[in-house]
Amino acid sequence: MSNSKEAATSDPKFIPASLILVAPRVNSGGVGDYAQELISAAIPSFSCFREIRTGGPGDAGILDLVRYRAQLAEVIDKAASDGPVVVHFELSAASLAPFWLLAGCPRHVIITATVHDPPWAVWWPFRFKSVATRKWLHHGIHLPLRPVSKQFERLALRGTALFALTDVGARALREAFPACTAVAARHFIPSRAALKPAFDRPLAVGLYGHAAKGKGFERLVELRAALPPEVDVIVAGRGTEKLSHVPGVTILGAVEGAEEDAFFESVRAILLPYDKTSRFYGKMLPASGVVSRAFAYGTPVLGFDSGTLGEASKVGGLIAVPNSVQALADAASMVITDQAELERLESEIGELQKEHSVRQAVLPFVSFWRDAVDALPPGREPLP
């Protein structure tokens, strides 16, 4: 896909270069959706924009990678004929294709990437389509090769500028990838419909997001038992329709548009019983897209004090508790019945909506890209 636009070179915000995005397709997962909104805010700063969209989690085979690589090489060649090129990748633990395209990307372009699951870029570099559906094969390959895959990631990303969406994530990237530049950015809060105040909504809590391991959906039975019976539990997100039925829990499945608005207006808070620590692979430090979506609707969040949520709780709108379902249920019961506390959290969220809009969140990216292009010698491409 190509989207070119004229821009006045006298505009200090203009970057005289082409921007190429490599990311999972929209609606294939949170990373693809994130990339769509963020890059839309960056496009006006460039003279030309093109993109390569890949399959989402567990949806890349070797033949797919060959096809994607040919597409990327063609797009880069066309863009390079017009001047400098910035190629930006969206990397996550489950989305394999962007990582392998970065690993083979020509080094005569400026290469940057957002790492959604620090401290590693992809975690399971051999989780091809044929492997993703076989748990024993997936772990049988990646566990013994863990030391090798870490070194391979360092080699593949050497010299790449890596963006993390939290401070703790950026620090982890600096340790994991000492040969890379790590930049701390922020996850944006998208614009969504204004809903009624949280205290005026039904007495309910929600769990939201893609139904993947580590997102807390596996703790629904325990959570339902720990909450008072008068508090409803409502679950929504891609893949949640496949979850086992839990008495006292309403499962909606994927929600978009007006259905998403209605879901958030049906709960007073979102709960995140996340624990992204594996005794085999280590601790993952993702910035929560669910938190950003909840904040977009003015909805407070409560979650475990692990990963990046502890950092987020210091900024506002979010309460972090010890990694205990009972502690989370107790805190949620108190918060959703306390009008003053809900109003305090909503006020904090209102400030964050202003500070973390898409336009604000894209600034560290655009600033880095502008400096990288400006640093190129006249008439020269980036050095290998």
How would you characterize the overall build of this protein?
This protein is of the alpha/beta class and about 375 residues long. The protein folds into 2 domains: about 1-190 and about 360-375, Rossmann fold; about 200-355, Rossmann fold. It is built from 15 helices and 15 strands. It has helices at about 30-40, 60-80, 95-105, 130, 135-140, 145-155, 165-175, 220-225, 260-265, 290-295, 310-315, 325-335, 340-355, 360, 365-375; strands at about 1-5, 15-25, 45-55, 85-90, 110-115, 160-165, 180-185, 205-210, 230-235, 250, 270, 275-280, 280-285, 300-305, 320. The strands form 3 sheets. The protein has a 7-stranded mixed sheet, with helices on both faces. Strands 10-9-8-11-14-15 form a 6-stranded parallel sheet, with helices on both faces. A two-stranded antiparallel ribbon has the order 12-13. Helix 8 links the parallel strand 8 (about 205-210) and strand 9 (about 230-235). The chain is globular, with a radius of gyration of 21 Å.
